[in-house]
């Protein structure tokens, strides 16, 4: 035996591949030990037998067609075929057949195969796992989208189609950002992915966060997003679980609104209780004082000079005016609530009206200089007594809430079709958060009301309603130099 024969014998007997020699008629001439070992037969059990006795009957035609093509010198790719091992156990082989000729005479086909049964079982299990995973994705309660490192969509489940409006066919192998990420957030998305690929750090990974998204109709809505990453064959994939929370956010907003309304109701109830307490006290005080002064006057008229009695009656009259004003304010509140507050407009010199209020107030409040400025007389349609009521209240507040100042400034001017009247004081001012609240019913600003225990918190509310009835506006702004300015704007032609 020469060296070549030795090498061939060693290869034939010790290779892990299955080698077979089969005659033209299909009879097994020789097989190697690996063939016998993998299929569980002894050589005498197979030699001289038809190869087709060891092939799965369902694949016999496939094998024959492949073998005939090889014999006829037709190039064929590798063949995957199922052999039947001893005990009727299927064994999957993969390999090829080649014809063997000697002196132009066909002798047999040589087959070289390898056992891929274990590999195929693993692939089958993997396919089953993939199928289960695919079924999980398809039936998941959340939208599930998988992208690769290039942000290409490789998986898109049914819920994702339902939420975002795109079918799987429309988005697979497309860039994710172009479909569900609002334009203004796309660069941040790209930047975050680049950072992860460069550093392995992802601040939003494995966390549930709330982000905006868009659907096929370009509707923007909030979603909950949770992203996890996995590396397969040296490539990162990102699995995003998403759900539409717009309805949840809407319900939360409704609940918050209800909570706010409840708090507002509680506050209004508390304000009403404060109002009733103050009002009952305020109604009781002038009545008690009036009665006391009248009794003193009656007693003193017999024993005291007439001048003393006159002073007592004057004080009683003062308390009577105060009580009358309080009752009128309460009546105004009632009219406003019932929608019966009416104004009777007629052409009136608003400049003269405000000037008269300023002059009367100056006599009453000697602690302040109340200045008035207007470039001309303005005639507009207003209810004189009601507008007078507004400015009496504003000037009264300006003096009351600027005890450390000594001046109040009133100015009238026209801008286009509106008359602007401003009442400026140099007091404590009003915090911006309270500048709209001061016009609410029963509202009393803390920093002001602590010095005014008798205020009912209704003067500005009534003034606001009167101005509204005139088609105007009223608001307050803080001055740069301190204090506040109330503005009343009335239309010229109404």
Automatic annotation (TrEMBL):
Indicate whether Disulfide bond appears among the record's keywords: no
What keyword terms does UniProt attach to this protein? ATP-binding, Kinase, Membrane, Nucleotide-binding, Phosphoprotein, Transferase, Transmembrane, Transmembrane helix, Two-component regulatory system
| Residue ranges annotated for the Histidine kinase domain, each copy included | 278-494
| Matching PROSITE patterns | HIS_KIN, PAS
* CDD domains documented for this protein: HisKA, PAS
Domain (PAS): give its ranges: 4-74, 129-200
Q: What InterPro entries does this protein map onto?
A: BphY/WalK/GraS-like, HATPase_C_sf, HATPase_dom, His_kinase_dom, HisK_dim/P_dom, HisK_dim/P_sf, PAS, PAS-like_dom_sf
As recorded in UniProt, its EC number(s) are: 2.7.13.3
Report the domain of life of the source organism. Answer: Bacteria
According to its record, how does it sit in the membrane? Answer: Multi-pass membrane protein
Cellular localization per UniProt: Membrane
Q: Does the keyword Methyltransferase apply?
A: no
| Reaction(s) this enzyme catalyzes, per UniProt | ATP + protein L-histidine = ADP + protein N-phospho-L-histidine
Report the principal subcellular site: membrane
The cross-references to Pfam families, in alphabetical order and at most eight, read:
HATPase_c (PF02518), HisKA (PF00512), PAS (PF00989), PAS_9 (PF13426)
Q: Which PANTHER family match?
A: SENSOR HISTIDINE KINASE GLRK, TWO-COMPONENT HISTIDINE KINASE
What's the name of the protein? histidine kinase
Organism whose genome encodes this protein: Paradesertivirga mongoliensis
- Lineage, uppermost ranks: Bacteria, Pseudomonadati, Bacteroidota, Sphingobacteriia, Sphingobacteriales
């Amino acid at each position: 035996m020469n060296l070549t024969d030795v090498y061939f014998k060693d290869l034939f007997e010790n290779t892990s591949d299955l080698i077979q020699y089969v005659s033209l008629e299909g009879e097994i001439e020789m097989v190697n030990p690996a063939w016998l070992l993998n299929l569980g037969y002894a050589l005498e059990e197979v030699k001289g037998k038809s190869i087709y006795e060891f092939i799965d009957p369902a694949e016999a035609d496939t094998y024959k067609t492949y073998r005939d093509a090889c014999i006829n010198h037709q190039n064929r790719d590798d063949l995957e075929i199922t052999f039947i091992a001893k005990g009727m156990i299927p064994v999957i082989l993969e390999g090829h057949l080649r014809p063997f000729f000697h002196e132009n005479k066909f002798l047999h086909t040589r087959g070289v195969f390898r056992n891929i049964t274990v590999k195929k079982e693993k692939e089958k299990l993997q396919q089953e796992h993939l199928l289960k995973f695919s079924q999980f994705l398809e039936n998941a309660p959340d939208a599930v989208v998988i992208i690769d490192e290039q942000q290409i969509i490789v998986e898109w489940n049914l819920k994702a189609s339902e939420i975002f409006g795109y079918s799987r066919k429309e988005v697979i192998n497309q860039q994710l950002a172009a479909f569900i990420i609002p334009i203004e957030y796309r660069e941040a998305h790209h930047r975050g992915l680049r950072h992860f690929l460069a550093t392995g750090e992802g601040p939003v990974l494995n966390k549930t966060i709330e982000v905006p998204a868009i659907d096929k109709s370009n509707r923007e809505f909030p979603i909950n997003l949770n992203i996890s990453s996995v590396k397969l064959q040296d490539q990162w994939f990102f699995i995003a679980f998403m759900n539409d929370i717009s309805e949840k956010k809407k319900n939360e907003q409704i609940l918050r609104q209800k909570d706010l309304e409840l708090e507002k109701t509680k506050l209004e109830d508390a304000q009403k209780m404060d109002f009733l307490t103050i009002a009952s006290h305020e109604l009781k005080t002038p009545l008690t004082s009036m009665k006391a002064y009248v009794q003193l006057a009656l007693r003193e008229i017999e024993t005291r000079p007439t001048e003393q009695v006159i002073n007592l009656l004057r004080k009683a009259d003062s308390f009577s005016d105060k009580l009358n004003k309080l009752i009128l304010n309460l009546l105004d509140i009632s009219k406003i609530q019932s929608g019966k507050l009416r104004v009777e407009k007629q052409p009136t010199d608003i400049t003269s009206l405000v000037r008269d209020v300023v002059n009367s107030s100056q006599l009453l409040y000697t602690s302040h200089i109340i200045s008035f400025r207007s470039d001309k007389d303005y005639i507009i349609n207003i209810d004189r007594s009601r507008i007078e009521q507004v400015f009496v209240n504003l000037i009264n507040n300006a003096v009351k809430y600027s005890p450390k100042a000594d001046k109040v400034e009133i100015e009238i001017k026209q801008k286009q079709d509106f008359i602007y009247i401003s009442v400026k004081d140099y007091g404590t001012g009003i915090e911006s958060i309270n500048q709209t609240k001061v016009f609410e019913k029963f509202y009393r600003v803390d920093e002001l009301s602590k010095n005014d225990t008798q205020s009912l918190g209704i003067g500005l509310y009534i003034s606001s309603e009167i101005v509204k009835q005139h088609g105007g506006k009223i608001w307050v702004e803080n001055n740069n130099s301190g204090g506040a300015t109330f503005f009343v704007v009335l239309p010229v032609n109404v």
